[in-house]
Task: structure prediction
Amino acid sequence: MAQFQAVKGTKDIFPEEIVKWHYIEGVIRSVTSLYGFSEVRTPAFEYTELFQRGIGSTTDIVGKEMFSFLPDPNGRSITLRPEMTAGVMRAFLQGNPGGGVPVHKLYYISDLFRKERPQAGRQRQFTQFGAELLGVSSPAAVVEVISLMMQVFDTLGLQGLRLRINSLGDIEDRMRYREELRTYLEPFRDDLDEASRERFEKNPLRILDSKNPAVQQIVTGAPKLLDCIKAEGRAEFDRVLGYLADRNIAYEVDHLLVRGLDYYGHTAFEVVSSELGAQDAIGGGGRYDALSKELGSSSEIPAVGFAVGMERMIITMEKQGLFAALSPHGPQVFIVLQDSGLEDHAMRIADRLRRSGIMTETDLAARSMKAQMREANRLQAGFALFVGQDEVASGSYTLRNLRTSEQVSLSLDAIPGVLHESSKQ
Ligand code: HAM
Result:
C-alpha cells in the first residue's frame, strides 16, 4: 500500500520551522497587549448559515471554497471556518446578550480552511493572525487596528509592504455605484472574462479587483466608488487618512480595492508584499458595522478589524532574511550514561536537574557512549554530565563543557548552580 501523504494544500510544521512561528507569535502577543487586545478562541466549525449570512452568498468563499458537511443525516450543515470575523461576532453576540462593556478588543491566531486551488502562499488549511475591535468603528478605532497591524510588521522588520486603502461607503452609496459601474461596463461586456461576466450580474464591484490584465485595462476608466459616497462618509474617510498621515503610516488610496467579503462598509484596506508573486495580499480588513444585524442582533455593533496570513508573513520574512538570528535551543546538559545498569540513577539525576529548571536530555535507547556523545553534539548540548560506577560510588560527577572541553568534578548538589551560572554568560 502506498504511504499516506498530507492532504493537498496542507502542511506539516517541523521543529526547524516552528521556531519561526513561536518567534512571530511572541511578537504578536506582546504588540497586541501594548494595544490592550486579549486573545479569543472560537470553535473550528460553525453552522454553515453563519458564513452564508456573514460573508455573503455571492462571495467566492461561500460560493465555492467552504468545507461543509452534515454531521448526521438530519443535522444542520456545518462548515470548517474559512475566516474568523463571523465566528468572533457570533461569539460576542452570544456571550454578551445585554451589550456589557462598550468596547471589546480581541485578537486571534487561528487555523482556517478554504477549498482554494493550492499554490505558493495559498493553502487549504492556513493560519491567520487577526484583531477585531467591537463596539466602535470611529476613524480613531480604524487607525488603532491599522497601527497595531503595522507595528507587528515593523517589529518583525518586514520591508516593502504597501498599504492600500479605500472607502466602500454605506449600502446606499454602493447600490448607487453598482448601477453606475454596470452602465460603464455594459459596452465592454463581451470583452470581460467568464468570472467577471458572472460577477456583472451578482456582484459587479468584484470586477474592479480582477487579476486579469485585460479586465484591469477596462476598469481603469471606470467611475470611482469614492465619488459616489455621501459627504459624511467622505469626511470620515478623510479623517482616517489624516490620522494615518499623522502617525507616519504610508498608504495609497486605491479606487479598485473592494475586498472579497460582503460585510465591509466604509474604510477597507489591504497590505500587499512585493515578495509574494500572484498571492500578494499579506493582510486585509476594514469596518463591518452591518455584520452584527446580519447575524440577528437587534442593535448594530460597530466593528473594525483585520487579518494577516501567517504563512505569507513567513514567506516574506524568509525572503528578507529576517530569521537569521533564530536558532533552536539545545539542552543545557546531556547525561551520558557509561553503564546501562545505571539507567534508573541517570533518570533520577535528570528529574532533579529538570525540577531545578535545567534543560536536560538523557539517552533513552541504551546507546554506546560514542553514540551518546554524537547525539549530545547533534542537539548542540552545552554540557555533558558523565554517569558511571565511579561517579555513583564517589558522589563526584564529571561535567564537560562541550564548547571549550573544560571539565570539572562536582557533587550533584553543586551542578544546578554551575549550569545556571553558565547560562547567564
Ligand atoms: P481575507 O482577505 O480573506 O480577510 O484574508 C486575510 C489574509 O489571510 C489574506 O490577506 C492572506 O494573507 C490570508 N489568506 C487568505 N486565504 C488564504 C489561503 N488560502 N492560504 C493562505 N493564506 C490565506 C479575512 O479573512 C477577514 N476575516 C479579515 C478581517 C478581519 N476583516 C475584518 N476583520
